[in-house]
Structures are given as C-alpha cells and as structure tokens.
Design goal:
The protein is 25% helix and 28% strand. The chain has 302 residues and is an alpha+beta fold. Strands 8, 9, 10, 11, 12, 13, 14, 15 and 16 form a nine-stranded mixed sheet that branches. It binds 4'-deoxy-4'-aminopyridoxal-5'-phosphate (PMP). 4'-deoxy-4'-aminopyridoxal-5'-phosphate binds next to helix 6 and strand 14.
Amino acid sequence: MAEIIPFDQRDGALWYNGHLVPWGSAKTHVLTHGLHYGSCVFEGERIYNGRIYKLKEHTQRLFESARILGMKIPFSHDEIDQACIDAAASQGIVDGYLRPVVFRGSEQMAVSAQNSHIHVAVAAWQWPTMFDPAEKLKGIRLTIADWKRPAPDTAPTAAKAAGLYMICTLSKHAAEAQGYADAMMYDYRGYVAEATGANIFFVKDGQLHTPLPDCFLNGITRQSVIELAKARQIPVNVRHIEPKELIHFTECFLTGSAAEVTPVSEIGPYRFKPGQISETLMNDYAADVRAEKSSVVLAKAS
Ligand code: PMP
C-alpha cells in the first residue's frame, strides 16, 4: 500500500483565520470547543482542471450550516470564496479537494460557549480524478446501516455539521468490516435516507426516485443531478421511499462531491444493474463539473 502522508504533516500552505499560513503551523489546542462539543461545520468541494465546482453554492451552505449551529463566521461570503481560491491556488491544485471548516475555539470549555471565537480554515489537496466509466458501472456494494438518520428536531440535520458524522463513521466502519463499500441508512421513520456521505437515487420504468431531504443533507450534487435529469426529460420523483419498494427498483446510484455519480449494484438483499440512466447521468455530471459555467477558475493566490 502506498504510504499515506498524515494530513497534519503535508507541505505548502493553507488559509487560517484570514491568512495563508505554513501548513504545519495551522494548529489548534486540544482544549477546543469544536473538538469536545462538536461545534464544527465544514464543506467538501472538488477542483476539476483548475476550477472549483459550485464554489458559491458550497460557501452559501457553509454559512447556512454555521448559522444553524449559532456560529457567526467573521468573514464575508466573498472573503471565504477568495480563501478557497487562495488555498487551492497556493498548492497549485489542478484536480483536488477543498475543505473549509468553521469551529468554536478554546475561550470556554463547557456546553455554553457564547463568547468563544469562531475559527475558519480552508485547506486544499491533490485528488486526481480517475474517471473510468466501465469500472464505475460495475457498481459498489452497500449494506444497510443499523443507525438511523435522526429527526430534524433531534439534531440540526440541515447543517453539514461534524457531529452528525458520528453515526456515518460508525456505519461505514461496520460496512467495511463486512467487505462492503458503504452503508445505506434509513431515517427515524424507517424511510430510505442516504448513504454515509452521499445521497441516493433509484430508477424504475425510466423515472428517477430520490428521498425527500427533510432530515438529511440536500446535497449540491443531488441538486445538480436532478437538473441534469430534467434537461434529459427524465422524470424525477422526490418523495418518501419505503424499504418494501427497494425490490422494485432496477438501477441505483449515489451522488456527492466526493462520490460524484457512483452506481450501486447491491444494498443488503437487493440487487441493481447499473444501466442507461445511471450511465447517462454519470457522464453528464462528469461533463458538468468540467463546464466553465458551473465553476470558478483559480487565479494566482492573492
Ligand atoms: N449526505 C452526506 C451525509 C454527505 O456527507 C454528503 C457529502 N457532503 C452528501 C450527502 C452529498 O452532499 P454534496 O453533494 O453537497 O457533496
């Protein structure tokens, strides 16, 4: 296995509280509210061919996630956009990943932390795209998670909040331990929800079906894929999906900034055959992420 360089030991620079700083110097004390109490939100964005895909949409969601957690980001939307551009440009990224993160600092170490400073960092790293349609069309295998997505009055489910990922990591680890790539999660009512880091779509009789995102992230990729499907006149049904319906779907795929459009071949006892609709949307999405209209070009770091 290739040696993986730990994320705190990489070279170059990242953006931390207003400035590009040497990567290794971007440190946070162990007594930090975001670490102990989960007061932390983040984003995951992709850079394709030197352009950040849907930068403004991700920045908008970062601000919305922070607002939901009661944190006021001490920068403007434009400043965060520029931070993303600078973090990526300073690393010379052509194809890569961007990780903005917002968290409460160390001023108070208790449940109440009204006076804590809000910290913001943006880091970028290389992530070469290996788009091999034939390989992807084999589909990945999912199991069904034991954990359920919580109700919107149980957790801040509309935020991309660090704390919501506890059950995702647990579910993903359990899936991997059984040889699966990922897990599909039901929600607190028993409806189909999503995977541990991606939304889910199904196909039946030439139409798409995807769960209503009323207790999990309405992914930016999910929204892009719905638009791409509509442009192809593929009907999209956004609704609650019951487990008993799974047997009737013929195709299934996941969507996410990291997952892109990833066909699925099985979910527990259910089998799917990646077909024409999955392939079409996978290719349309691959074209969209490289289209100039949807992305922001990286200028030289300011
Ligand atoms: N759900 C979860 C739990 C996720 O982590 C992600 C990835 N951010 C998504 C859905 C898909 O969101 P997006 O398409 O905006 O990346």
